[in-house]
């Protein structure tokens, strides 16, 4: 055989083997995700390097970037945060993701998480009339618990003007990232159906939550885009004992039977290996399990997800979509830890219970599957 033909044959064989391996991985774990805050403009190049050198080789195929208002919006420039990403910054991220066969899904928190600690988020700072609880004032110094039950502010889902603004933001974000999916957050919604809200008072909180999910989902569907949300508000915190953070104490959990079945549920549990993916799958919903900073739990959750897919009925099997590492710090802070550049005492005290160790161990386990 001539050398050129031999080389071509070897290349063909390699491509076939690679394709078979990829198909096998997709069948075992269709969604292999990573969720983190979008980098700041000065951190974009470092994050592109991370995509190319760490996410791509690990076969990550979904990257959720929590952007919120850290973008130079053209539709609503009044909502831009000070150090917002430019369109050129986003195109760098998009190019790196495409090169590595990664789908980018931007996140802007809708409904809840419109404030943090004693800081009002951009939407309610600019449009205070959208506030579900305007009588609750932001404290100078935030403490939990507090008399107002303030964790994070929410916008009123029944305000007649709020969706025009947020949907402009959603559409512009999806267009910039060239994506067919959007993550709306919607976790830890404590303020909903407030008794003093002139529009929401007396209404069923589950119906209010489900109505907002449907409204966002239907808007995205007009352009063939899929809605992703966190799953905690769809779980009963009292019956399960999961509490008010990982699940609902204000009766929104009944919304699980009221939302469209094509919404992707991101099911997060950071202290236990709860079997809630089975619950969501039995409700007809697609589900992704999301660990954070405990590697041993992430490994068990990964094994569970693989076993659910193996052992489930034909009807339920494909609803178990996969795993997604979550990071709840800035991208720069995570990369400092990941690359060993972070030598502070807090990091040292964490030992191996860090999001970067969790990420490594989870993807090691996925590779072994």
UniProtKB/TrEMBL annotation:
Xref: InterPro entries: Beta_hexosaminidase_sua/sub (IPR025705), GH (IPR017853), Glyco_hydro_20_cat (IPR015883)
Transmembrane segments annotated in the record for this chain: none
Domain Glycoside hydrolase family 20 catalytic: 84-306
Signal found in the keyword field: yes
Keyword hit for Ligase: no
Keyword list, A-Z: Hydrolase, Signal
Reactions it catalyzes: Hydrolysis of terminal non-reducing N-acetyl-D-hexosamine residues in N-acetyl-beta-D-hexosaminides
SUPFAM superfamilies tied to this protein: (Trans)glycosidases (SSF51445)
Protein name: beta-N-acetylhexosaminidase
Protein EC: 3.2.1.52
A Pfam family assignment: Glyco_hydro_20
Family statement: Belongs to the glycosyl hydrolase 20 family.
Signal peptide start and end residues: 1-21
């Amino acid at each position: 055989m001539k050398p050129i033909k031999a080389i071509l044959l070897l290349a063909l064989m390699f491509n076939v083997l690679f394709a078979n391996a990829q198909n096998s991985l997709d069948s075992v774990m269709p969604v292999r995700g990573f969720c983190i805050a979008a980098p700041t403009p000065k951190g974009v190049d470092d994050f592109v390097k991370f995509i190319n050198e760490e996410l791509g080789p690990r076969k990550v195929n979904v990257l959720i970037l929590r952007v919120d208002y850290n973008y130079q919006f053209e539709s609503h420039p009044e909502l831009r945060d000070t150090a917002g990403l430019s369109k050129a910054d986003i195109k760098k991220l998009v190019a790196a993701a495409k090169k590595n066969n990664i789908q980018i899904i931007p996140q802007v928190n809708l409904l809840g998480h419109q404030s943090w600690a004693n800081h009002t988020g951009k939407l309610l700072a600019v449009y205070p009339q959208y506030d579900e609880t305007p009588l609750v004032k932001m404290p100078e110094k935030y403490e939990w618990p507090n008399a107002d039950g303030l964790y994070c502010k929410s916008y009123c889902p029944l305000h007649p003007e709020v969706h025009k603004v947020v949907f402009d933001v959603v559409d512009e974000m999806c267009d910039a990232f060239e994506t067919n999916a959007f993550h709306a957050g919607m976790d830890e919604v404590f303020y909903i159906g407030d008794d003093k809200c002139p529009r929401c008072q007396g209404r069923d909180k589950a119906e209010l939550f489900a109505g907002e999910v449907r409204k966002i989902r239907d808007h995205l569907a007009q352009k063939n885009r899929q809605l992703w949300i966190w799953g905690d508000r769809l779980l009963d915190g009292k019956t399960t004992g999961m509490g008010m953070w990982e699940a609902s104490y204000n009766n929104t959990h009944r919304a699980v039977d009221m939302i469209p079945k094509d919404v992707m549920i991101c099911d997060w549990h950071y202290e236990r290996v709860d079997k809630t993916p089975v619950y969501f799958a039995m409700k007809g919903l697609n589900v992704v399990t999301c660990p954070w900073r405990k590697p041993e739990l992430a490994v068990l959750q990964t094994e569970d997800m693989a076993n659910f897919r193996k052992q489930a009925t034909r009807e339920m099997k494909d609803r178990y979509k996969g795993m997604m590492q979550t990071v709840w710090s800035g991208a720069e802070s995570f990369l400092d830890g990941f690359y060993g550049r972070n030598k502070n005492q807090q990091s040292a005290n964490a030992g191996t219970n860090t999001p970067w160790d969790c990420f490594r161990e989870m993807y090691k386990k996925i590779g072994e599957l």
